[in-house]
What we know:
CATH class: Mainly Beta
Order of helices and strands: HEEEEEEEEEEE
Number of domains: 1
Helix content: under 10%
Number of helices: 1
Strand order of the largest sheet: 1-3-4-6-7-9-10-11
Distance between the termini: 34 Å
Amino acid sequence: MKKLSTILLALLLAVSLSAQEEMGGLGFHIGFASPTLRVNSPTTKTLETIPMNGVKVGLSYDATIIKGFGTTLGLNYTFGTYHSKWSSVSEGGYSTTQTSYRDTYQGLEIFCDWQYKFEIAGDTYVMLYTGPTIQVHLSLKEQQYLRSGDETKRQTRYGYEYRDNEAFEDYKRLNVTWGIGAGFQYKQFFLRGGYDFGLFNPYKYDTFRAMGVNSDYYTRGRFDQWQIKLGVYFLQF
Length: 237
């Protein structure tokens, strides 16, 4: 019994020392994000890709479970925008107007990553991680610009506005992604980057006909995201 207690005490001491070697904590991060909407239209089965570029800021909580293996939980705010090139619109065989589109996106994210850290030097680690993210789309709208001569007009084409009097209720507010990525940590500073794959169709309905559109095509698409974050743990343990 005494021998078993000594072994258990030694194991607990080893786990404690491992936790002290790999410091986690509460941190702040900021970085680049590229939320990318991929959806088909009522007239084609191919996916239209809208790659938006912007920023991501948030908080993350890092904890080590056993030596090398741990989790990272956090909350993000993401903003992205995309502005297409001007193209000509033909009317009656003549190009009289130019058009361009601008998409803007805002969203909140709750993420949970499982990670493994490899120590490559003192207080220096390389990490691999994977895990799910719950996205809440606050706003995603596309505005069309029409330019004729010196006059430019703007009108909203579609988007996630979530107002009862809008036709844009055809899109879901919630999305779940699965991400994979890698990172680097030196003392309290860290760099993480990866890609999130959308797991659900962003449309609320399975067919365009159910949305009131005269089309038999099935709706399909994804909401993906590239990201890279630079951060610092302001509270370590």
